[in-house]
Amino acid sequence: MTCLAREEPLKKSVESPAADFVDRYSRQILFAGIGAAGQRKLARARVAIVGCGATGSALAGLLARAGAGQLRIIDRDYVEPSNLQRQSLFDEHDAAESLPKAIAAARKIAALNSSIQVEAKVEDLIPSNIEPLLESSDLILDGTDNFETRYLINDYAVERSVPWIYSASVGSYAVALNVVPGQTACLACIFPDSPRGMVETCETSGILNSAVNLVASITATEAMKLLVGGPDMPTLRRTLLSFDVWTNDRAEIGAAKPRPGCRACGQRDFIHLAGEGRPHITLCGRNSVQIHERQRPIDFAELDRRLQAHGQVRRNEYVLKFWCDPYEMTLFPDGRAIIKGTADPAVARSLYARYVGS
Ligand SMILES: [Zn+2]
């Protein structure tokens, strides 16, 4: 009898997933802005998160726990020890393994909410792959660290009329903007060109993890408003909001209406979407260059054997790392490489040609 009594709740939970759902999200369903209907909408939502560093990690974690039904995490980078101060989905094991951030994030999310779907894409978002990576998303969230990718997302979102949220954080400063194409200003309305004051990066100015979490909290909440209430949700913020958690400076710029003559949403001139693939990108100010001009799969086992004579090699199924002092090369199966130890694309290209092939 005791045994039966103890087994009963288990049996019940297996037989009624709906009861599990209500129980799991009970505190969020109790919140008037969400409710049971809102929670069901969240369960059907498809959200793409572009970039899974500090902001992307926090956003993915919040939305996964909140029950957003399908998350697609797109990131080109791998986990390093210096990420752990602020990138909340990763741990020391991920850094020791140099796991791609998208893979490590998807594993963590699967462990913290197995009832949602999460998809990892280890790729750099560029014009040639943006369509398959972002198609069928209800909402696109920005976890990137550069304006080039943000303008690309903005072009795509405006062209397809998909809402997206710009989020950035550097130093102690956080900034966010909701873009609802056809209703609000878009990123190019506010910043026709890359803003000069914000080209600082986390490497040049450092970053507080609390500034990251603030921008992720604001963005995840606006995301839930959009997913539950749609673009006409009255409480959806229609400003560019910035907040400095260190100085307490706060500013809001109106963004309720598109700027007349805007290149993207006014003239519908999608120059970033039409742009050529970018052969080299210098990453977040950390003395490294990404090369992805060669779209040819790499045979890790063969390359491992070949590189043994030239330096230390380590690999798993996702990355192959090769150290040849003073450089460190990280290769992905699709032929993409991140080369650390230089900020000069010519040096990186010559290293790639010498060790991997041209
Ligand atoms: Zn615009």
Written account of the structure:
This protein is α/β, with parallel strands linked by helices. The chain is built from 15 helices and 14 strands. The protein has helices at 2-15, 17-24, 26-30, 35-44, 54-66, 92-96, 101-112, 130-134, 147-160, 187-190, 202-205, 209-229, 271-274, 300-307, 345-355; strands at residues 46-50, 70-75, 117-122, 139-142, 164-170, 173-179, 239-244, 250-254, 280-282, 288-291, 312-315, 320-324, 327-331, 337-340. It has an eight-stranded mixed sheet with strand order 3-2-1-4-5-6-7-8, sandwiched between helices. Strand 13 and strand 14 (337-340) form a beta hairpin. Residues 185-186, 188-189, 258-259, 262, 264-265 line the site of zinc ion (ZN).
Topology of helices and strands:
Elements: H1 2-15, H2 17-24, H3 26-30, H4 35-44, E1 46-50, H5 54-66, E2 70-75, H6 92-96, H7 101-112, E3 117-122, H8 130-134, E4 139-142, H9 147-160, E5 164-170, E6 173-179, H10 187-190, H11 202-205, H12 209-229, E7 239-244, E8 250-254, H13 271-274, E9 280-282, E10 288-291, H14 300-307, E11 312-315, E12 320-324, E13 327-331, E14 337-340, H15 345-355
Parallel strand pairs: 1-2, 1-4, 2-3, 4-5
Antiparallel strand pairs: 5-6, 6-7, 7-8, 9-10, 10-14, 11-12, 12-13, 13-14
Helix pairs in contact: 4-12, 5-12
